[in-house]
Amino acid sequence: MKKIALILFVLTFSVYPFQQFVNYAPTVAVNGFAKTGDTLWVASGGGLFVYNTVTGHGELLNDHRRFPDPHLTSVVEARNGDLWIGSRNGYLYRRTKNGVFSVFSSYFRAGWGIVDLYEYQSYIIVGSQRGVSVFDPQKEAALKNAANIGNFSNSRVNTITSFNDSLILGCEEGVAVLTADIERANFYDRTVWRTDFSSDSSAVVDFFVENGELIPSSGLTFSFRGSKYIVEKDGIAYSNDTPILNFGLHEKIIAWYVDSNDNLWIGTDNRYFFRWDGITDVQQVIIEGIPLKNISEMLLTSNGDLWFLPSLVYLDGYQPWNNGVVRFDGSNWTIYNAHTHGAAFGYIGDLSMQGLMEDQTGDIWTGSWGGNIKHISLSQNRLGQLVVGTADNQTFEYVKDAGPPVWGKVDALTFDNNGYMWFSPYDHELGAVICYDPRRSPDSNADTPTEAGFRRFFPNGHSDWTLSITKMATDNSNRIFTVDHNNHLKIMEYNGTNPLQAQLSITRPSANLGVIADLEAATSGIMWIAGSNGLYAFIPSVNTPFLIDNDIGAPTSVAVQNDSTLWIATEGNGLLKYQFYHKDRIPVSQSIADMERFSYFFEVEKQYVTMDHGLLSDNITHVAVDNNKGLLWAVTDAGLTSYYIGSEEKVPSGSNVIISPNPYSISNRDQASNRIVFSKLEPRTEISVYTVNGQLVQQLRSQRVSDHEWQSEWKPQSSIVPGIYMVIARPSGDRGKLILVP
Q1: Is the Cα torsion angle 530, 532, 537, 541 positive or negative in sign?
Q2: What is the per-residue pLDDT for 301?
Q3: Dihedrals φ, ψ of 123, to 5°?
Q4: Residue 243 class from Cβ within 10 Å (0-12 exposed, 13-18 middle, 19+ buried)?
Q5: pTM here?
Q6: What whole-number distance in Å separates Cα of residue 130 and Cα of residue 258?
Q7: Residue 673 — very low, low, confident or very high, per pLDDT cuts 50/70/90?
Q8: 539 pLDDT tier (thresholds 50, 70, 90)
Q9: Do residues 132 and 124 touch, judged by C-beta distance below 8 A?
Q10: What pLDDT, on a 0 to 100 scale, did the predictor assign at position 218?
């Protein structure tokens, strides 16, 4: 192993504005409700869901400018009609009754993730993972905070209420009661709280009133239509020890709300929310958005779609209906599993799915833990699966339905440049590696591999047989890199264009790369490998790794932006960006593939991007770069983040926004367009439309339509008042005038 002599610069970012990030979080969990008129406000794990209880129509608000952290934990309506909303990372949001949003980040900066909100007197009481706070909505500031509550050692606040004019907290160790007037209370003094420890050491998550007394509860407890309901565990609500509402033993009821029309709304941990009138069957409401709470792998395809594999956690085989292979086309989320596509998809597998690749035709192939290899063809509108078998069942066939219950596990697969698929069937006697031609169905009875359409390598007893290969990748010279379950790296190569009949050569690098987290090939020919011992590069035609950096923390994934820019996802430290330069500070191009030419000497800038810059979480599992759209995608333990890394070229400063058509007819009379287009915008511009007296009418996000052009579109509602409106583009400050006519 060679060590490249380099100059390493470690930088911190101070120039990454939050508007470069768009965060998506799973919408499957619903944590709280509030209702104004016919509108139900739903605090979901993926944004604020606005639901019309009369029409049944809903809309998810997860705009990154309004909700930099879309995982919402609580929503409460203040007496003046404003909504206050808390997020898991500590953002406090306000929506006025006129529809204007504000973001308050002080709790986020302090690391106080918000658990519950409660209006008390003229204040918003904020319960967090680290204590309780009094927020003054008029002053828009936190007045006092208590990080130590009475005699409790754990300061987490799960729920807040008031009783007999006293402020009461449900905490991890019991109940805390404020014993002084809230305006005069010194929150730095533990003794302003009377703390009562729970008799059974259970956390207090709810309260209910019985016989004129406030009773703490370790489970959700509520009264509905004259009956008392207790959620003791999982997804079951009991009344008089009889299960009345049953959402399944693997599900959880996490929120409840009884509205003024005597309807019960139930929020669950994995099944969105339900409406019940106490008479008819419960009705489920599904929120559009990312359905996976845990993602094991991500793939960016050639057309810009994102594909995700689920991280499955139930050892007894149960899987929620919304788990499956998921596709995101930039607007819509599509699930592929047996619930949505029946027997054609088949069994999803026992645990997490691994191995996700696109072939040369655009079809998707993915491995599974027991469900064999799934095949999704969008162009042919077809689903199928490759049954790979095991040591006990040596079946190898392609089926268009579920077929026989043959268990088969595949953790990694790759495609070479000639269109052949390489993968490893788990614990297979006949071969640890299979090369398969996906352009045909395999024939196990054929006499030769070419006729069969597949070839097995390394049978049990061979020196290269292994129980399982966990990672595979191919570079542009057709070197196939494999990492087995013992972390042994091998490089396979073959001559010619048909590996089913060619000689296969094996290289086993002796360098200790540590625990290999990921490997990614660059167009320049370099295979980048990140592991516990550092960042390494395998340049073309050289099967000895070059050590680039031995201090990269805990890497999880690698993505190549271009020949001079590399991104590494880490567990706990966010994103790590490497920028490579020649020693004369010129960014390297494909010449980096021939490191010998500049004597292993170049400079590297190493920069971190974290939650402070806008990431949803610093625990990142996968990363991918979409150079066509100028986006980097990061899968985190809290959801998905897109980060704009594209062209920094801007239109000349001081230029005006182009508005077309202008004037615009609200009734769409005698005009070719049914919407208004705002163009000549800077990247990530936000368009705000105001009345002449300064009232905000609409806020719009811009979309990138080319390397140097961003636009926004707006279709005004027919109820809007004709007249003159002011348009302001931020952050540039460019202004324009819009005329609306009947």
Answers
A1: negative
A2: 95
A3: -115, 165
A4: exposed
A5: 0.80
A6: 29
A7: low
A8: confident
A9: no
A10: 92
Q: In this predicted model, what pLDDT tens digit does every residue of 437-494 receive, in sequence order?
A: 999 999 988 999 999 999 999 999 999 999 999 999 999 899 999 999 999 999 999 9
**DSSP H stretches of helix in 187-332:** none
- Specify the amino acid at residue 383: L
Beta strand ranges found along 378-479 (DSSP E): 382-387, 397-399, 408-415, 421-425, 433-436, 454-457, 469-474
DSSP 705-730: EETTEEEEEE---TTSPPEEEEEEEE
Strands (E), 645-722: 658-660, 664-665, 676-681, 686-691, 696-701, 703-706, 709-714
CA distance 610 to 556: 15
Q: What would the two tokens of residue 359 be? A: 């072939």
Q: Strand order of the sheet with strand 703-706?
A: 658-660, 676-681, 709-714, 703-706
Mean pLDDT of the chain: 87
Question: Which of 535 and 6 is assigned the larger pLDDT?
Answer: 535
Res 654: pLDDT: 47
**Distant-in-sequence, close-in-space partners of 736: CB < 8 Å, separation ≥ 6:** 656, 657, 658, 659, 678, 726, 727, 729
Strands 2-3 and 546-549: parallel
When pLDDT is averaged across residues 661-674 and rounded to a whole number, the result is: 73
pLDDT exceeds 80 at position 599: no
- Minimal CA–CA distance to 552: which of 603, 515, 500, 520? 515
417 contacts 474 by C-beta, under 8 angstroms: yes
In this structure, the strands spanning 601-609 and 5-12 are: parallel
For the chain, report the end-to-end CA distance as a whole number of angstroms: 74
Q: Is the dihedral of CA 360, 364, 369, 371 positive or negative?
A: negative
Residue 589, token pair as written in the block: 């191009």
Select from 122, 147, 119 the least CA-distant residue to 136. Answer: 122
Q: Which SS3 state, helix, strand or coil, does residue 598 take?
A: helix
Q: Is the dihedral of CA 679, 680, 684, 688 positive or negative?
A: negative
What distance in Å separates the CA atoms of residue 89 and residue 47, rounded to the nearest whole number? 13
> Two tokens at 436?
């398969």
Coil vs helix vs strand at 658: strand
- Quick check: 309 pLDDT over 90? yes
| Model confidence at 594: pLDDT above 60 | no
| Whether the Cβ atoms of residue 643 and residue 20 lie closer than 8 Å to each other | yes
Whether residue 187 contacts residue 178, with contact meaning beta carbons closer than 8 Å, is answered with: no
Q: How far apart are CA 328 and CA 346, in angstroms?
A: 21
Residues 336 and 383 sit within 8 Å (Cβ to Cβ): yes
- The rounded distance, in Å, linking the Cα atoms of 57 and 61 is 13
